[in-house]
Design brief:
Radius of gyration: 15 Å
Oligomer: single chain
Strand order of the largest sheet: 1-2-3-4-5-6-7
Largest sheet: 7 strands, antiparallel
Number of strands: 7
Number of helices: 2
Distance between the termini: 27 Å
Length: about 120
């Protein structure tokens, strides 16, 4: 189940953030001053081949994978970064999110689930 991290550090001048985590998913949600959702980032397949789907009002969708910086023989590990990735399995991840978000704020969970299913295929 996704659990909220309380007392998340807020960045002055940036939108307010709420952060949730579980063994399988990480979710960051950015909110406007009326608690409307400005955007979110949902990371999945944690620990294996981690990927992230992002959505924002301004830019729409973006699907990326995490380059963990490990695959650099003979060099130190570099900082993980997000790089473009292929197809997003919207239905599969939406079901996983639904199962993991039962204890979350319903308005946020329903919004994200709806958005995941709107991902263009």
């Amino acid at each position: 189940m996704l659990k909220e991290i309380l007392d998340v550090r807020q960045v002055p001048g940036d939108a307010r953030r709420r952060v949730f985590f579980s063994g399988e998913l990480d979710l960051t949600v950015w909110l406007d001053e009326r608690d409307g959702i400005l955007g979110f980032e949902l990371c999945y397949d944690k620990g294996k081949n981690e990927r992230a789907v992002r959505w924002s009002r301004e830019a729409g969708f973006l699907h990326q994978k995490v380059d963990d910086g490990e695959n650099r023989p003979g060099r130190y590990k570099s900082t993980p970064i997000l790089v473009p990735d292929g197809m997003f399995p919207a239905k599969k991840i939406s079901r996983l999110f639904q199962d993991s978000s039962r204890d979350m704020d319903r308005s946020i969970a329903e919004f994200i689930c709806r958005k995941l299913l709107e991902y263009p295929q």
